[in-house]
C-alpha cells in the first residue's frame, strides 16, 4: 500500500501540526518519520532517506482501516523533481500545501537554518549573501546544499504553486494558509477531511506543534545534530526528545523594520500577485499572517 497523501510544504507553515492531527484519525496512517525527504533527491540533506525499501518500511504498519497513507516533507514543494517523481510512484496521489506570507516565512526559515547549524550569519547578511552562495562561496560547513540557503527562492510561494499546477491537476491539491489554521483550526481540519473524502471523527482539541524556538548553545546543538544523524543511520525514527534540551522560546519573529522590510516587500510583490491570480490568496496588503 503506497503513500497516497503528501503534505509538501512550505517549510515553517504548520505542517507538523497538521500531520499530527491527521495521524490521530482512525482512517489515516502518517509516516512515523515526519520528513523522510525521499522524493526531493535534488536537494541534499543528511536526514534524507535515499533507499526505496527503507522509505516504504516507514509504512509497514498500515492496515486495511487506513484509507489514507501519508507523509509530510516540506522540501517537495520547492523541489523541481519531487512532485513528478511522486506521480510516477503513485499517479493518484493527493497533495496538501500550507502557506504563509513570504516575509514571515523567510524569518522563520532563516531561524530554522540557524538552529540546524546550516546558517551562521545574521539575518540581513544571510539574505545579501544568497548569490555568492549559489556560486559556492561562503557556505557554512554544516550546510549540505547551497540551495538550502536560497531564501528568496524558498519563499516565492506563488512561483512554487505555479510549478505545482503545471505538474498535477489542481483537483488533487488542497491549499491552507497558516492564518486560516490559527484562526479556525477545526474548520481547516474538517475541510482537509472533506478533501480526503473521510468522515469527521469528532476531534475538538488541537495542540500546536513545533512552536518557534531558538537554541541556547551552538556547541550543544552540534552534538545533538550528530546524535540525530547517528539515530537516523541506525533506522531509529522515533523522536527521543533530546533536541528539546537545547531549545528556548523566541519572540514573534517580526523583528524586520525599515528599509530591509521594504526591500523584501518589493522583492516578493510580483510573486504575490501571481499567487493571488492562481489561488485567490491575497497577501499584498499585509506584512505577515502571524
UniProtKB/TrEMBL annotation:
<dbReference type="GO" id="GO:0008146">
    <property type="term" value="F:sulfotransferase activity"/>
</dbReference>
<keyword id="KW-0808">Transferase</keyword>
<dbReference type="InterPro" id="IPR037359">
    <property type="entry name" value="NST/OST"/>
</dbReference>
<keyword id="KW-0325">Glycoprotein</keyword>
<protein>
    <submittedName>
        <fullName>Sulfotransferase</fullName>
    </submittedName>
</protein>
<dbReference type="InterPro" id="IPR027417">
    <property type="entry name" value="P-loop_NTPase"/>
</dbReference>
<feature type="domain" description="Sulfotransferase">
    <location>
        <begin position="3"/>
        <end position="229"/>
    </location>
</feature>
<dbReference type="InterPro" id="IPR000863">
    <property type="entry name" value="Sulfotransferase_dom"/>
</dbReference>
<dbReference type="Pfam" id="PF00685">
    <property type="entry name" value="Sulfotransfer_1"/>
</dbReference>
